[in-house]
Amino acid sequence: MPVRTLSLEGFRSYERLDVRFGDGPQVMAGRNAAGKTNLVEALVVLSSGRSHRGGADPEMVRWGADFARAVSQVDVGGRAEELEVVIHARGAASGARKRIRVNGVNRRAAALRPLLRSVLFAPEDMLLIVGSPSMRRNLLDALVVQREPTASAVMSTYSRTLTQRNALLRRIREEDATPGELAYWDAALVESGARILDWRQETLLALAEPLADAHREIAPDESAIALRYASNVERRADEGNEEALRRRLAETAEKEVWNGNTLVGPHRDDLVFESEERELTSFASRGQQRTAILALKLAELDLLTQLDGRAPLLLLDDVFSELDPERRAHLVRRIGSLPQAIVTTTTVDDLDPALVAASAVWRVEPGAVQQVSG
Question: Which of 56, 207, 218, 247 has an alpha carbon 20 to 30 Å from 284's alpha carbon atom?
Fold first, then answer.
């Protein structure tokens, strides 16, 4: 699903930008703060409807602008599809903060994902194994929503339910409400939470073989790695996720009122990297951790390609400087097999010469992008 054009208006550091991409690797070279990550972010937004950098949507609007617009022409199985996301600044007169269109027709964010699937590999991903559980949950959920069209809406429902339930728990603690009022929110939390648990566990099961294959390719002499879903909603033999979550809410009811917080559910779960049933955080070197993370990214590519045979867009945001020559070589080989990849770097010297020779190279400067070779 190659990206043919990218047009930005009022997006981050870009007042206006129009670029046309070809097939194969596209290397975006420029110094720090030149705007490389903003280009990657725009493509992530066009792929998912939201930024990977966190923060509120209006933060993507250029200072002084009324809105940010990102538009792309994407080749989907030989047909052109136009994707558009418009984000309005805070306090703008327009009603909706964000508008998403496909071929000029208003759509929801879920409509973007089948048309422009993407896998992002950024420097912060190097902290996946030792970082906070939320990083690992977010990575898994991002993969879930690309496989399950309705998952994003269910996750939003769960988040809203969790907020309302926590507020009610605090009111109960302060004796401004009664425990009986929890019944409605408990039912909503169980329904959406169980579906999220199902999807996460199914996605991990599907990811197991591609992950093992990718790790074996990169590190044939190292022990195999695996991902284990660590849940605080452990099921008994006769339970599904819905029954287990309902039981755990009942078991923690008094403690939750005392804390004023929901203590069980998918928002508290984790993803554990293991080798020979030992957690990588307890023994793996920095190099072994990076091998595992690279293998995971390559496995994401394979898993999403299996959905319909179309490889996703690979977005590599300044990660080559984080990898040693052997791991870079594996990544270069995989890039060469893809229809298209976007690679950012502060200097092409960090890249494999063969990759540079096979790429279109672009110079990125504040507010401007210009092709210099390829």
Answer: 207
For residue 323, what pLDDT is reported?
Answer: 85
DSSP label at residue 177: S
Give the start-to-end residue ranges of the domains of the chain: 125-308
pLDDT score recorded for residue 91: 65
Whether the Cβ atoms of residue 67 and residue 87 lie closer than 8 Å to each other: yes
How many alpha carbons lie under 13 Å from residue 68 in its C-beta half-sphere?
Answer: 27
Among residues 321, 369, 371, 373, which one has the least CA distance to residue 18?
369
- Upper half-sphere CA count for residue 254 (Cβ side, 13 Å): 1
Answer whether 345's CB lies under 8 Å from 318's CB: yes
Decide if 128 contacts 167 (C-beta within 8 A): no
- Token pair, residue 26, equals 């596209």
User: Residues 298, 311: contact at Cβ < 8 Å?
Assistant: no
Cα torsion 302, 307, 308, 311: sign: negative
Q: What is the DSSP string of 100-122?
A: EEETTEE--GGGTTTTS-EEEE-
The two tokens of residue 171 are 């009111």
Q: What is the pTM of this model?
A: 0.91
Q: Are strands 313-317 and 118-121 parallel, antiparallel or unpaired?
A: parallel
3-state secondary structure of 67: strand
Cβ distance 213 to 334 under 8 Å? no
Instruction: With CA atoms as reference, report the closest residue to 48 among 103, 116, 98.
Output: 116
**3-class SS of residue 264:** coil
Low-confidence ranges of the chain (pLDDT < 50): none
Q: What is the CATH number of domain 125-308?
A: 1.20.1050.90
